[in-house]
Write a structure and sequence with these properties.
The protein is mainly alpha-helical and 141 residues long. It is 63% helix and 0% strand.
Length: 141
Amino acid sequence: MNDKKNTKRLERIKSVMKELKLTQVKLAKDIGVQQSHISRYLTGGVDVSDGFCYTIVLHYGINPQWLEYGEGGMFLDAGKAMSVEAPTEDLALMKETIRNLNYTINEQREKIERLQAASKNREDNILNPNAFVGEHVMFKK
């Protein structure tokens, strides 16, 4: 995504947070992600994803045209925030799916890190012929 588009999205997301008096913690809890994800978006550490925007649109009744292009009002409901006291079944399912995806991503990241460590150990042992010398010697002269 180009920087200008991401910056505009980010500005509008911050406007939503200000209008709804949302903290990073509250936003994260509402949409089912970790607060650190919100922080990375808000500080520009990572681009604001389409999925993140879509979740905000659904959860808070934000006008997608406004969020993406700045066209129209902030909210779909004639400029008023949508009530989010009782999420719909679809929203609850979406939150659960996001949590499961985050869990799966973290699980896969851990597997990759373990494989990388094992690979590094294997390389070290191949490069060091003395790595297997010691009490495990099978044949003695």
